[in-house]
Amino acid sequence: MSILIKNVFMDSVRKDILIRDGVISSIEDEISFETDRVLNGSGKAVVPSFVNAHTHSAMTLFRSYADDMHLNDWLENKIWPIEANLTEEDVYWGTRLACIEMIKSGTTHFNDMYWYYNGTARAVVDSGLYAHLSSAFIDLGDEATSNKQIAEQVDIFQQKEKYLPNITFTLGVHSLYTVSESGLLWARDFAKEHSLKIHMHLSETKKEVGEWIKSTGLRPVEYLASKNMLGPHLIAAHVNWVSDEEIQLLADHDVGVVHCPTSNMKLASGVFPFQRLKDAGLRIGLATDGAASNNNVDMLDEMKIAALLQKSFTGDPTKLSAEEVFYMGTEGSASLFDLNMGRIEVGKSADMLLVDLGNIHLIPNHHLIANLVYSAHSGCIDTTIARGKILMENGVVEGEEEVIEQFSQCVERLIKN
Amino acid sequence: MSILIKNVFMDSVRKDILIRDGVISSIEDEISFETDRVLNGSGKAVVPSFVNAHTHSAMTLFRSYADDMHLNDWLENKIWPIEANLTEEDVYWGTRLACIEMIKSGTTHFNDMYWYYNGTARAVVDSGLYAHLSSAFIDLGDEATSNKQIAEQVDIFQQKEKYLPNITFTLGVHSLYTVSESGLLWARDFAKEHSLKIHMHLSETKKEVGEWIKSTGLRPVEYLASKNMLGPHLIAAHVNWVSDEEIQLLADHDVGVVHCPTSNMKLASGVFPFQRLKDAGLRIGLATDGAASNNNVDMLDEMKIAALLQKSFTGDPTKLSAEEVFYMGTEGSASLFDLNMGRIEVGKSADMLLVDLGNIHLIPNHHLIANLVYSAHSGCIDTTIARGKILMENGVVEGEEEVIEQFSQCVERLIKN
User: Fold this and answer.
1) Which residues have a Cβ under 8 Å from the Cβ of B219 and sit 6 or more positions away?
2) What is the structure's pLDDT at B93?
3) Measured between alpha carbons, how far is residue B159 from residues B149, B175, B199 in Å?
4) Residue A33 region, left (φ>0) first, then alpha (ψ -120 to 50), else beta?
5) Among B64, B70, B312, beta carbon nearest to A318
6) Could you give the 3-state DSSP secondary structure of residue A163?
7) Chain B interface disruption, residue of A377, A382, A412, most B CBs within 10 A
8) Is-above-0.95 flag for pTM?
9) Spatial separation of the C-alpha atoms in residues A313 and B270, rounded to whole Å
């Protein structure tokens, strides 16, 4: 498919943009070229789409199901009991709903970890989005569970061609405290053998880190280093409670880290040490986490909250500027997954948004990026393009009504159980 | 005007609501009554509209004009120089734009302090909104300026009937550190004589409080108490840096306090001590502050950020729950201005919103208030009603295009100067 976008603002200058085979092939003052589609960019600006670097997308099923609770109470008494009744169909429709929400709020690639891998994968494919996808590996130290989970991971891995090109299989090691040492080592070796990324939660809460030190004598990152698990293939979400020595280890091994500000604030898990991680040269992405602890999957919200958190927490309003946080949600996140996206540039993947400069939240247009970070909501996004395919135009995503209908039936059944 | 809303969800039950002469006159399972308008409430829920308890609405003119800066640098090098060129027409159109944004995001009453009172007042009237309005009194200790400002306040006060019922004249004492002692005492006496509210910034930054203690030997609230300026008529915005003794003084005199979480976080001014103020029994409202330091005037955004800030700052995820922060943005704020609004109840003012339960951000509907606080954006609001008058229907506010056009011309002229 080829698309020609006419007369769109790019860094305050009107340009024509030509998209061919999913890639930005030309950006000029004027382009004449026969294409499948021509989009009128007048009154709109083009910006890169977002990469949501850590989420559990099907958890839209539990949006606002339980809030304002302590993490353990929330998990043990609310989330886990209802998750016990989940089916693959629930996960499919929960993910479909999340995908529509992501398309509307400008995300075209995300990194997911949840149950029922195939449910999620089918939903991503059917939505036209792209994802790094992992099935949660949790054995709680039980050998039989561990073997079963390993078999499942291998099985999914062997079928990974099925969902190409939308899905990149990733090993989902839930966390240090939920996976046995033998499970961790298996994941390390399997990832190395097959050049896979590993997606895990790391040092999210102070409690978890304290208990880990107590039981192993090592801080979590030191432990991972001792097991040769650190590397550029590791995507570590949260990373709130890390010592300077741990940050140096993460940097030495070029680990990718993901900031989830809303989830961390809502669950009072801790504050991401942005400046220390940045100063160490780490690749940093931005993410919403799941809708159950956010309660949406909207990267525009996430950028604002990330910037506010760093300023407030450090007492320095110059910290995490609009440009820095916009970078984090686009190129920063993309860098964790080796994606050729995050900039509007010839040769880059055609993952982009057309934003409506006539939306009141973007008026006046003193500074578009600051407006997007601090003022916009997802209604400002008119068009979402993923790998050169239009997923939303004039704010409309095809099939939304059907998805809401099916999703609502799943929720009704889950709540009844 | 009379309105009948049919079949709308209220606390998960379908009701009919009758509005007559700006007041909710009946709520029943079914109402048959001849009215000027009938609204179909199917698929919608009714909730009270918001009261934005502290803003400088015309500052939409400077939205995203200067961000990520230290407060003094921002004011002295960016905001004040451009404000020096403002005209009454700029303020009129800046406020008109803010009013449309507020109507779209569910605010029907706000508390404003800015320059060119008449510009703001005309804009509020023309928008159909309601406001407590004050002209900023700043004399920086200069007697001639002080006399001029007092004359201006008296002049505006004498014409206050002109803008009834939309505008309630309020005395705008900018802050302790920008107004002379004689100016403060004049305001105290004038407010007492005419039963006026006083709107001021109080203890926003640590620096300002430190300097005040250094120059007077008293903490700001102690100073106000020593001058007999505390009382239920005082609306104090920010109130971040207060000792326990000061909180007790505020409570003893039933002062109304206003939380501006986004502005405080963005400028790194400090953290509002919500729990301490609540425990002391204070009336607490919620506000966006001006768009130049937010960068919107959206109370939905503000509720989420307020809840996240308290949880993160205290390390306790149960703090400032969805219900508490929704209360703060509705009844809490309303209580500061003696408004008969903030609840959907017979006899209350008909200030309300119809939210679209079909919007993806409100799906599933496990808990509407949590969805509104944590997930919604202003696009979820379908209808806004202020004092029984429909200001938005189907997401459309009349006259938006004209306002944007005129506003944009003002901005262009301001930037050129």
Assistant:
1) B209, B212, B213, B242, B243, B245, B246
2) 98
3) 16, 24, 19
4) beta
5) B70
6) helix
7) A377
8) yes
9) 9
What is the Cα A253 distance to its own chain's centre?
A: 22
pLDDT over 90 for what percent of chain A?
97
Is B265–A309 a contact, with Cβ atoms under 8 angstroms apart?
A: yes
- Give CATH 3.20.20.140 domain extents, chain B: 50-336
Q: Which CATH architecture has domain A50-336?
A: Alpha-Beta Barrel (3.20)
How does DSSP classify residue A365? -
Please answer whether residues B89 and B144 qualify as being in contact, where contact means their C-beta atoms are separated by less than 8 angstroms. Answer: no
Q: Is the N-terminal amide bond of A165 cis, ω within 30° of 0? A: yes
Interchain CB distance below 8 Å, B71 and A317: yes
Amino acid letter for position A403: V
The Cα of A133 is separated from the nearest Cα of chain B by a number of Å equal to: 23
Mean pLDDT by 10 residues, chain B (417 residues): 97 96 98 97 98 98 95 89 95 98 98 97 98 96 96 96 97 96 98 98 97 98 98 98 98 98 97 98 98 96 98 97 98 98 98 98 97 98 98 97 98 90
Q: How far is CA B352 from CA B35, B45, B48, B385, B409, in A?
A: 18, 10, 4, 5, 33
Q: In A, which residues are within 8 Å of B101 by CB distance?
A: 360-361
What homologous superfamily is domain A2-48+350-400 in, according to CATH?
Urease, subunit C, domain 1 (2.30.40.10)
Q: Could you count the other beta carbons within 10 Å of the beta carbon of residue B413?
A: 13
Residue A118 has pLDDT above 90, yes or no: yes
Identify the pLDDT of residue A319.
97
CA-to-CA distance for A267 and A265, rounded, in angstroms? 6
Task: State the Cα–Cα distance between residues A285 and A335, nearest whole angstrom.
Answer: 8
CA dist B234 and A325 (Å) reads 38
Give the ipTM of the model, two decimals please: 0.97
What phi, psi does B371 have (nearest 5°)?
-60, -45
CATH 2.30.40.10 assigned to B2-48+349-400: yes
d(CA A386, CA A131): 11
Choose among B61, B67, B101: nearest Cβ to A364: B61
CATH 2.30.40.10 residue window(s) in chain A: 2-48+350-400
**Chain A residues inside the 8 Å CB shell of B62:** 366
Span A140-156, mean pLDDT? 96
